[in-house]
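Annex B. Sample input.
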Amino acid sequence: MRQIVLQPDGKLAVYSTVVDDLVMYDATLDEVADEAADFARETASRNATPEQTAERIKRAHETARRNAAHVLAGEPHRAYKHPLSWQDIEAMSATEADPC
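Annex B, continued. Sample output.
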């Protein structure tokens, strides 16, 4: 799963639970939406029709735009059931860096 997070400087980042790390940072709303569409394109099923793939890409773009707008408005709970904050990501990174 990927989740859009607000950075302290007001820009957006995308955190992936698959790699447990940021896959994008210092991004705008449009960049986040475009990245989501690209990811949907790259991970589309080979068995999908071109129409199905196009619809998946369109939905991914629209969902990312909507979720990013909620995050930017200070309402990440409207986009995610358990929204991550920048502080959460920093804490996870600190825990991984310190194995003790």
